[in-house]
Amino acid sequence: MQRVTVYIDGFNLYYGLQDRKWQRYHWLDVRRLSENLLHPGQSLVTVRYFTARVHSDPNRPNIQRQQETFLEALGTLPDVSIHLGYYLRKKKTCPKCGDVIWIYEEKMTDVNIASELLGDAHDNVFDTAIIVSADSDLAGPVTTVLRRYPNKRMILAFPPKRVSQRLRQVATANFIIGRRKFAESQLPNQVTKSDGYVLSRPYAWS
């Protein structure tokens, strides 16, 4: 049986679904999605989900609560680990009018994915890694794993509206995750935590 570990770039996936206008699929059971990406003869070892906690946004006042609810729901799933980066506050000046705005830039997700991927390859955790992302910065660690461990396979599962030609060039294989996989991989509308607290699908994701 071929062992598979899945690495999910949370924001790359989230915004791919947003761009495809598939918000209804944000309430995603990442373990079930991972299982739905496997082929016969493969078994899921673990799922690693990478993200950063969002900051408040006046244009989306519920975004923090939505994310927190989702992360708590993921915390109830077996064999799923959450790896957090952070947001860096940066000042941006308009070159035309000189107005200054503050923006938040996500940091560490690609580094965290690379670190876990290389560590797991070294520890022989998987035979095949499935990476759900189209971040071309991951081409380096993918190339390194294939060079150092030629018997392992690196599969790129691109989110909707997200494709990287660079990753296509270096990976063992690649595909775009289709709508049916997301539709078949939704969490229940209500998820009960171990302490009895009930989490509900955010209304905007219904």
Question: What is shown here, in short?
Answer:
This protein is of the alpha/beta class and 206 residues long. The protein has 7 helices and 10 strands. The protein has a single domain (2-196), classed as 3-Layer(aba) Sandwich (Rossmann fold), CATH 3.40.50.1010.
Report strand order across the widest sheet. Answer: 3-2-1-6-7-8
Q: Which shape, going by the Cα principal axes?
A: globular
CATH topology: Rossmann fold
Q: For the report, how would you describe the main beta sheet?
A: 6 strands, parallel
Instruction: Please trace the helix and strand order, writing H or E for each element.
Output: EHHEHEEEHEHEHEHEE
Number of domains: 1
The CATH superfamily appears as 5'-nuclease
Please identify, by name, the CATH architecture.
3-Layer(aba) Sandwich
